[in-house]
Amino acid sequence: MPSIAIGLPECGFLEDLPDVTFTGITAAAYATVKLDDVTLLSNIRLTPDKQNRIVIYARQMIRSLVSLTKPAAFETLLPMLQVQLRVGSTTFSTSGAVIPGGTSRTEAIDELWYAKNFLTWQPQIIETTRQQPQWLAYTPTSIYSQNQITSRLYTRNGRIFDKTLRTDTGSTALYFRQIQTDFSHLWGAECENQELAPIAYDVYGNDSKTQTLYTQRYILRPERYNDVCFGFENTLGGFDTLMLEGKQTFQPEGDITTFKTENTEKELANDFTSIWEANTGRLETERMANQFQDFLKSTNRHVLRRGTWYRIIVTEYKVKHYPGESNAYTFKYHLAERDEHGLRRGQHRQKFLSGRSLSHDPNSVV
């Protein structure tokens, strides 16, 4: 008797999705796979194996299609994956919402896990500057009738301030929601207007019974002259930022195409590419090192320059990690969209407006 032996979870991380398995199949069947309104397979004829099974590897089909996050606050419905198998006149179907990334957990991720966790691997306590962009992503669930996201500010003189960022009511719709959590956005105006001296702030969730579900703490630190901010899609689908304090060097590369005659040579094309080598600086904890490793695993990475995010391509990296010790990684990158002349114009304009050299500014193009 045909049946679905392994189906899709109601909501799951892409890399954790099982291979959809139909059993009891004794003759050819026809498979259809859809991601939202996009049809990936349509009535493809498949034959069962010796165990009378048909296995559909839907995860591999959508691996390059599912990416939700970006350096912004937003919300969107999670994409829905649907797998159907038509056996004779009967169609068997399984479907579920998909979140980019994965947890590498062997046990299933249940609704309570989504209710209690932000979609990030960053340490629960991190340092940040007043201007460093920050976001936290999560998936609201219907497990609680109400979920409130709150921020709490701690000041040098011991005063504490709270504010509600948003309230989510229980819903059967499955959303990906990303909120802005940097200091300047949450507390900058209050601290300036009330002349407060902030030292740290939290962002956390409460359920309808005021039980704290998750807490992210940000410790404020002074800005450094060589700070460079990078952002990336982490392996849970959210968008994290990192502030590199290590050395960054400019190492342009390129090939020149020339045309030679008997007596002269002329340049026809110059494939000049701006390439930077960046160093993470000292990574003092395993959690900090893990987050930078998450950055190196990503395929959606950005660098922040003069208030604008630019997508980057990491072409090379060097990682030699010693557990329990201070570590540092290096990597090379260039901008995904090449516009060397446009970058030069931006640099020259800023030099003209500021009246000073940008040679020591790690965010400038040198």
In short:
The chain is 13% helix and 43% strand.
Provide structural commentary.
This protein is mainly beta and 366 residues long. 13% of the residues lie in helices and 43% in strands. The chain has helices at residues 58-62, 111-116, 183-186, 188-194, 286-297, 340-354, and strands at residues 3-6, 11-13, 20-23, 29-35, 38-46, 54-56, 74-77, 80-87, 90-99, 125-128, 135-138, 146-155, 160-169, 175-180, 198-207, 212-220, 228-233, 239-244, 248-250, 256-260, 265-270, 276-279, 301-305, 308-318, 330-335. The strands form six sheets. A seven-stranded antiparallel beta sheet has the order 18-17-23-24-25-22-19, covered by helices on one side. A five-stranded mixed beta sheet has the order 2-9-8-4-5. The N and C termini lie far apart (69 Å).
Give the key terms:
single chain, 366 residues, mainly beta, seven-stranded antiparallel sheet, five-stranded mixed sheet, 6 helices, flat, disordered C terminus
Radius of gyration: 25 Å
Total of helices: 6
Described by strand count, sense and barrel closure, the largest sheet is: 7 strands, antiparallel
Mean pLDDT: 87
Strand content: 35-45%
Number of strands: 25
| Secondary structure: helix percent | 10-25%
Structural class: mainly beta
Task: Give the overall form.
Answer: flat
Please list the strands of the largest sheet in the order they lie side by side. 18-17-23-24-25-22-19
N- to C-terminal distance: 69 Å
- The stretches of 5 or more residues where confidence is low (pLDDT under 50) are 347-366
